[in-house]
Amino acid sequence: MNNSCDWMSVAVPVTEAIVDLVLAYLYELGAGGIVEHPGRLEAFFPISMSGVEEKIRARLHTLRDQGFAADPDKIAVQQIPNQDWNREWKKNYHSLRIGRRLLVHPSWEPVPAEAPECVIQIDPEMAFGTGTHATTQLCLRLLEECIRPGDRVLDIGTGTGILAIAAVKLGAASVHAFDVDAVAVETAIKNATANRVAHAVQLSVAVPSTFSLPSHRFDWLVANINRDQIVKMLPWMQSVFDYPVGIILSGLIVEEKVLILEELARWRWEVSAVYHQQEWLACVAKRNV
Question: pTM of the entire structure?
Answer without folding.
Answer: 0.76
